[in-house]
Description:
Structural class: alpha+beta
Shape: elongated
Distance between the termini: 24 Å
Number of helices: 10
Helix content: 55-70%
Amino acid sequence: MRRFDLIIISFVTAILIAGLAAISWQTIRTAQTLLLPALDQKADTVARSLSSLVSEAVGYGIALEDLVRAEEVLVTTLNDNPEFGYAAIVDEEGGPIAFAKGDDVAMPEGSLLDGGTDMRVIAAPVTVDGIEAGEVVVGIPNAVAETLVRELWVDVAVLLVVAILVALELVAFAFSVSSAVLMRGLAQRFDALSKGDFRPHTPLQGTGRIAEEVQAVDAEIDRVRQTHASLTAQAEAQGAQETSASLKALGERNQLSTTRHDPPVSLVAVRAPVFLFFFAEELTRPFLPTFIEGLAEPVAGLSKEMVIAFPIILFMAIVAFSQPVLNTWTE
């Protein structure tokens, strides 16, 4: 990559990373301040909902220890809210009446009302006629919040990488417009000359001072090459082998007799649209299986997974096998 391109890309990337990192850090800090209260509020809502059901049952004269299928209700609650560690119904002394916990959650030591250092506990009273008969307890593992924050960091990191890639492609596209092309072309010419590279560049069209500078540099490169070719021809005609050898070595060192193969500006300009097209097309990949599952009908002899995968396989196969033929049309 040419030094000018590297400088521009490095400069833009540094600005993007600094700006996006600051925004990401602030976003995650804000999310952390909202995450735990929101999780506690959800647990409080679930605990109050369960306590109202239990209070209603106790109000009909059913004792807490005589509740039927209470654990099934707690298990269903945990299945609907996997971020909770356990749910329990306890009597007024804290003794367990019904209890359910997640698969990876250890049995709390001591009272269910005390989650210890690894669990936060939200409790809602079971009251009948203003008298507290027990409590519904919901435990939230501290690791849940840590996992959510870690996943949030991963999501932000992915968005950061995607934003940088898109921005760099847009920068490359911006440098394909006429004024930017002239500035980029002038920088590339100076960079090549500083390395002793006198190969001719692709002519650039335009008006203004930068265009005049580009044309002047190209004219000077052509003059040097023509002078070198003329001197080489004269030395060979006069049989001056030492001079001819020196001129040949000079030409090889400064590439005075070779040509340059640069991609045309139109080819560079098409990078950003093509990148954005494929990027947009690939955005469908994460939710496409779920979308197809909602539309798919059962097919005899095929599993549900195969019915979901078949349209994606068919699409990718058509793309792969049509490329040898359609590439010519695309070009």
